[in-house]
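pinned: reference chain
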Amino acid sequence: MKTYRTGFLLALTGNIVLAVVLVGLWLHYRAAKPLDAETKPSNSLAQDSMPTSMATPPASIEVPLVPVQISPQRLQSIGVNTGEVKRKLVEDEIRTTGNVAVDETRLAYVQVRFSGYIQKVFADATYQYVRKGQPLFTIYSPDLVATEREYLVAKQNQQQVAQSTVPGVTASAASLLDAVAERLKQWGVPQKEIARLESTGQVQQELEVDSPVSGYITERNALPTVAVQPEMRLYTIADLSTVWVQAQVFQNELEGL
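pinned: its structure tokens
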């Protein structure tokens, strides 16, 4: 029992000593705090006494820009060029490679609508320039010669029955002549050839074929003594006054075109 009492007194004494030490530390902290408080206003006062230009501006306030002057020698050394401000269209230049092609809408093909044989060839070279109406070749066609003879016979019959009083004879002769003349037109026989046939009354063995347009010969299949069919292309004539340029550019460069 005596031992238990002695231990209790020692524990109580230790707690009292610890409490005293804690109270002493707290008093020391309270005594030192006013000194720190007095030093802080002096620092803030020192900051307030600093010039406005040396103080750090708040982040929300924009600092005005300061003009900079550069000498002409410096401008020349760094490659600065000046010019007058003008209103104009802005163009972008794209350099690429391409091929020049013939405008397909300016191509002309020379063909005949009847069979025959080429006799003379006047335009006898590829890339030769020809003008519209210039003779290209002459052709002999048995079918064309026979049709021209029918035309002359029909015209002669019309003249003979012009004074006939038999009903329908005059109309039949006129209809036959119109049918033969229409066949010549459908074959592409020029009007000047039909007019010559009426005025002279003579069948011409060779028909002259002229160029329908002006341009350069890019293809030629017309040769002397060659047999010709309606589906045969004899000449291809290209008008090169306007051409196409086929070039390849990247897709992102199309905006500048």
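why pinned: Confidence is low (pLDDT under 50) at residues 35-50. The CA atoms of residues 109 and 236 lie 5 Å apart.
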